[in-house]
Write a structure and sequence with these properties.
The complex is a heterodimer of chains A (about 425) and B (about 450). By secondary structure, chain A is α/β, with parallel strands linked by helices. In chain A, about 30% of the residues lie in helices and about 20% in strands. Chain B is globular. Chain B contains 17 helices and 19 strands. The chains are: A alpha/beta (about 425), B alpha/beta (about 450). Chain A: It holds the Pfam family DHO_dh. Chain A: It catalyses: 5,6-dihydrouracil + NAD(+) = uracil + NADH + H(+); 5,6-dihydrothymine + NAD(+) = thymine + NADH + H(+).
Chain lengths: ~425, ~450
Amino acid sequence: MADLTTDFLGIKSPNPFWLASAPPTDKEYNVRRAFEAGWGGVVWKTLGAEGPPVVNVNGPRYGAIYGADRRLLGLNNIELITDRPLEVNLEEMARVKADYPDRALIASIMVPCEEQAWKDILPRVEETNADGIELNFGCPHGMAERGMGSAVGQVPEYIEMVVRWCKKYYDRPVIVKLTPNIADIRKPAQAAKNGGADAVSLINTINSITSVNLDSMAPEPMIDGKGTHGGYCGPAVKPIAMNMVAEIARDPATRGLPISGIGGVTTWRDAAEFMALGCGNVQVCTAVMTYGFKIVDEMKSGLSQWMDEKGYTSTSDFVGKAVPNVTDWQYLNLNYVAKAKIDQDACISCGRCYAACEDTSHQAIAMTADRTFSVIDEECVACNLCVDVCPVENCITMEAMAPGTVDPRTGKTVQTEYANWTTHPNNPGAVAAE
Amino acid sequence: MTSPTAPGLAAGRLDAESIAAGFADLHAPLDPHEVLVAADRCYFCYDAPCVTACPTSIDIPLFIRQIATGTSAAAGQTIFDANILGGMCARVCPTEDLCEGACVREAAEGKPVEIGRLQRHATDTVMARQEHPFVRAALTGKRVAVVGAGPAGLSCAHRLAMLGHDVVMYDARIKPGGLNEYGIAAYKSTNGFAQREVDWLLGIGGIDLQTGKALGADLSLDALAEEFDAVFLGTGLGGVNALGIPGDDLAGVADAVSFIADLRQSTDLTTLPVGRNVVVIGGGMTAVDAAVQSKLLGAENVTIAYRRGRDAMGASRYEQDLAASHGVKLMFHVQPHAVRDGAIDLEYTSDDGTGLRGTGEVVSLAVDQVFRAIGQTLTTDGGLVVEGRKIKISGAGRTTRSGVWAGGDCALGGDDLTVTAVAEGRDAAMDIHATLMEGN
């Protein structure tokens, strides 16, 4: 069985599955139970400055998007950082860390953008013997209105400034948690690196309104007739998160900067995908809020089995392995030609491919009176929509055309050579091929 | 209480509670969450095979999508637009042979979308509302006689009323509904649904229902044709084929349809006598309905005797399995030879391709009650041309007599199913309307 032990910034954990800073990690009771259940690490729910803690609303904090059978696909929340006193959290963290020395325990922190505020809290966090800190520059609701959370994460200069303070007053690893509510995720990541951050973690939640109550004409979750945007998370955000992770992983300015992947990780496969895009570990929240701590059993067994099948003996064997294959559109091979192919034995004749292609794509699927569907190669541009809408897995596949054969759509012979847009004759800015 | 082993015919073989449980709704309504899960399974197929398979061409993918998006009343409207008896069809259609049999998920995984139960949910939603969902068009001043208030007649009358015609609907029996009221297993139409459905359907207005009037006895086609602008015949098949064997006239030999009708009209099933040993002759839905209900009344031994093989049976495989699950024995390749006092002789059959023949080998079963379920016949043809023992029609139910249409079981063509009758009644109404309004 593959070894899942992970070393992230020198912080060892028995597996790469950490719980993200969120409601599941708000107190000792939960965190102990999470560790007993097998989680490799925990990022404690975000601490605020000394003094009266924040208060939360006393109505619904969450809103949801459902798929089939009320499967929760997306969750939105308007909860703030911990609403328990700082001392209580610090005492609990120290106790838990002492009892679970082999697990990672990270303190998430959000205090005002003033050097004194950081200078005050960091030594106290250090005393807990936590393995590191994560700067919450991502929370998009409530705290952002007070100049913290994503309000900081959206200004690269602030990120760099605060990270410098942290490196000045704190000796252990500093992770910067990024907000996705920004145009170019590379900028805050670069700022974090420039400030001396040891790693970034992403994504935090996405500004969202999950639904509108059409009776009361107000967004959900609704508090006494009003609603506010919340932070969106869960399986629905995974594609967005993975793109942002990949952007940072392949940006020359941040290449090699350790990343902790967050955003809809629900299964071992999700974790493996994030890690393949360069994440040293992953953080999970919505999945445990949906199913409880026990899902880590599946994550561990699944990742382990997959690693065994692939011959990976350590997670570092595959971390970042997909990054070289993430590229810009302009470098995609325009000489690659594929055609959709329908497996008639697998086809159940629902006709969804036909409706999709005929109504919205390239009119490249033919239908007979007896409901046989076949691809018209003369029209097929291999867009993949038919594959995506087909309810039968592997019924429709994209088959690459062999070099030397003629594409009946264009009448051109498929070339062996790679050629992209940068050298294409239709590109006004094309450079001559060498 | 007697017992299942009490000899001869006896009532109350089971206690009231067991009988009530046995005759409970065969397909109980889906609960709201089950509805959403079931609806979500629909693939929204292009030119969907389920629609093609439905004799009334209900837009099934549309109504299921309407359910899935929380508008079940709109879904019900979609169904009723095509099939005003969508509520009954949801209960009695052999969906395994029709929409669900054609569902691509049946082909893919042997588990079709539960179209019938979803249709029930949608139609129940609409019917639970106070108002009738259709309004009549401006009155045309035309009057149409509809003879027979079964599925075909009801469908025809409703459509005609909707189009602005005034309808007088006659039925030979005391209650309207036809086979929905008298001829379908009780567990498929519980809580007086057939009558509730008729009452609801009549809510459109413009339909004058007159029961206890039979064509041939109380009504003549000539008089109707004289009085009305058009006549629609949906009289069904009132007669039952005889067995044509010795003992056919013995006490204890009865028509399955009569047994079912008595059962459906009974207000206390513990008082309805049934034999200890019952044999049903036939292989259609009526045979299964009679056999299963005999068992549910407490008969000890119930056998369906069918002269051909399983595949040739009119009853679907689902119905066969339903019978088997209730402990009904299915015998194939046997035909009735003679009924004697307390026994029936069945002769084995074979078919070498030149026709069905008895082999001469006879098996005897103890029997107290024999039900004939070998097909039904016209009671009257109204003097119209008959073909294949049914009223000859062409197009949308046009008989050989101008101004007279026919549909449902009495008319040539189509399966003898509720849903087919509904389609034929509806289509005839559209043709009557077009004919009456010609030149207007």
